[in-house]
Design goal:
Number of strands: 15
Radius of gyration: 25 Å
Length: 542
Amino acid sequence: MIVHNPVGYPPIVTKKALAPRLETLQGKTIFLIDSRFDDSTRLLEQIQLWLNENLPDVQTHLVPMSGYYGRDDPELWARAQSEADAVIFGVGHCSTCAPAVAKHAVTLESNYGLPTVSVHTDKFAAIVRSTVRMAGLGLAPRAFVPQPVMGKSADQLRAYVEGEDPVTGLSFMREIIDALTSDIAAAGDEPVQFARTPRLLDPANEDALHKLFLDNDWTDKLPIVLPTEERVAAMLAHTSRKPDEIVGRMQPTANRGLWEYTVEKVAVNAVMAGCLPEYFPVVLAIASSGLSARSSTSSSGAAMVVVNGPIRQQINMNCGVGALGPYNHANATIGRAYGLLSQNLQGGSVPGETYMGSLGNGYTYNNLTFAENEERSPWKPLHVQKGFDREDSTVSIFYGGRTTTFSLGLRETFWREHVQDMLRATDVVGPPTLVLDPIAARQFIDRGGFDTKEKLIRFAYESAQMPAARYWDLQLVQNYIYPNATLGAEPAAAKLKAAPDALVPMFNEQDINVVVVGGESNGYWQIFGAGYRTTISVDDWR
């Protein structure tokens, strides 16, 4: 049997060079650059104290990044180039900040000529190694401390600094000093160079191929449909696009390198998921977003996909009873295809290497893929809100899926307070998407007079408030919102000026969404912490 290779096409890696190392740290100035993630500054403070005590003629400056760690900070890089002789950059201790810190360190080495060592926790050693190799500087120095940094006392962090690197077994501070002053041998860690992904796999029998797909982490560990040439051709017959047309590029997290994929590669993964050929334009539209359903985030996020327009009936999607469950072939396999194409076309999704979801997330099996119940909704459908015509067929992609609150209907007396409680329990960086059975949707009209989605969204925005001091103490707010607020980014900056006991909105009004789905067996509804990303035309991919 001959089957297609499901893997996407890797990026080209351009080799970069290390900055010249210092002969000594004596009399030199070192910038300790803080990524501003989860108590990073506290570990850097202990490194700074160690340097001050043991190398008193070394000048140290602890400098925070100006904003969110995932963005480039060229003004700070230029300042470091002007004022410092070397950089210690940290801490990378999540699946997105570790690649970001590693990539920033590569930038300082190769673009600014500064000897730099990045500091991470040991859980992210594989991700860091992959990132620097993909960035073209496999030799980029890095040192590791145990996980976690967050919540540790000064004494515990000092023990990290005075102890051994848990990855290498070497003295942590000796490793830091050597990384900045010693020549680094080039053996064994050159930038990765990928061979071009073959279109077909070597012939084998069915059992051997199933084992090959399983062993290579090309599946979600459930049985797949083998993508034979005939099956892939049948899938391709349901689009006017050419098989070799580029659909998009994807990576598991920023700074990991964008892999490229074609219409045919998407078809291969759709076959594997069990999709019928008539579903293929929906899968292509999802793939064209370039948004991975297999993000490597340690917060264990998941995608949500909402389908609107005539395509729902044309492929018999479920928007009624059990729509979010496993009871409909189109819902289940389209959502599964999104997961499979994400992991295969972005270069992998392997726990501990390219996937770091600490808890994992069951939603990722089919990415909460369903159709909106437009016929029973009392409001405009989602895609019309997003600027499409009612007769357009679309997919809308959300991401987050880490928090879910749940209720039955709306009580007569305290329903507003109950909704507020639900909103306050929602992930503050995964804004609320209200997913309502049609009965619950009509209750919002009956109880609150919300005859449009916009009025309900305004109510949710005004209800989701908490005291400013408590808001700013949330860890996710500190990680992702506070850095930009300090730069004056609105509306976060206005919240930063609020008195500690003043109520501030938890979410931006434009980030809140409402979707109607369900079969009216009762008035149940949920709030998903899932941020809207984009809406894409399915018709463009027919």
